[in-house]
Amino acid sequence: MSLENALLGAYAAGCRLAFAACAVPAAPEGLRVLECAKTGTALHAALGASLAGARALAVLAEPAQLPESSVTGGVAVLMPGAGEAYASLREAFAASEAGDRPVALDPERDYAAQAETPEPRKYRKEPERFVLGSSREEMCAGCPYRGAYYAASKLWLRTIGDGGCSLLGAKRPFLALDAAWGRGTAAAALAGFTAALPESLRDTAAVMGAEDAEADSLRLLGRTGGTLVLVGGGQETAELCRACGLETLELDANDLGGIEAALRTESAGARALVLRGECALQRRGGAARKYETDANRCRRCGACGKLGCPAISGRSPVIDPAKCAGCGMCAAVCKCGAIRERA
Question: Is a pLDDT exceeding 70 seen at residue 330?
């Protein structure tokens, strides 16, 4: 089967998005083909499109291990060496949806011609089906991810993560993570999601570690649009994002007001929020400052508890000086001035 016929078959099956890690022929009108330099970018972009409820085709030049992931809209992967056989692309997409997994197709196989069908939509927000497990239950005091997930939870954003500490956004009190497919995948998944669901630009973001950012997925995001939060980055990360076509804003990871304001601002294109901050576990020495609560001023509103900081405990919150990292987020969210820097 020629690749051109495969694209025609995918379009007839209701697929309107293809991500190709190889050169592709002219696609039928109405099928958007986004070229990627890397196999992983194409695969995870297709999974992101599936999360939005769309059928997506990934076209690869070489064999690859398919991610073990649930799908919503259906994902078909055309690659050499694939062993699954279906009579048509429509049957392949239906098998993907029924089996809740991506399916691999042999590019040399002939598939039956099909009558065109409308694009199906099956978006369901069931984050527990897509988020990877995490052995840890809470972020460390002073974790640079805290500000991003606090703001995402407060603004009710749909959030795509990747791996490592990013997965802790799925834990209480944030419950702010909708999907995650492993380290370095968030930008590509977000690109696939926004390509399939353009209206999601106003209420969707991706969060990932700055050390895992790479040019191919950033360039893809630059073509589709979306807000990417890169945690722990600096000037080098910001320059990479700008070079890939993303509007870039640099902020301190503890700047809750700045992060919230940036995420509240709607953007029609692609942008990156680079949050400067150091991993609390790698920080040497004690915190330069500590915070404490004034019981006489505290109104027990619970605002500081929504940060999920392990240094804060109790209904009348007490800050453990041995655990306090001195980030100041608790003082920033306290509206009654009950949290102050220790003398």
Answer: yes
- Residue recorded with tokens 């109790």: 314
What is the Rg, in whole angstroms, of the alpha carbon atoms belonging to the chain?
Answer: 22
Residue-wise pLDDT tens digits, 9-47? 999 999 999 999 998 888 889 999 999 999 999 999 999
Query: Residue 331 phi/psi, 5° resolution?
Result: -65, -35
The tokens describing 95, both together, are 């098998």
**285 CB contacts (<8 Å, ≥6 apart)?**
none
User: pTM score, two decimals?
Assistant: 0.93
Helix extents (H) in the chain? 3-12, 39-51, 89-99, 146-154, 186-196, 215-224, 235-243, 256-264, 329-333
> d(Cα 280, Cα 276) in Å, to the nearest integer?
13
Tell me if 193 sits within 8 A of 49, measured CB to CB. Answer: yes
Q: Quote the tokens at residue 253.
A: 């990871």
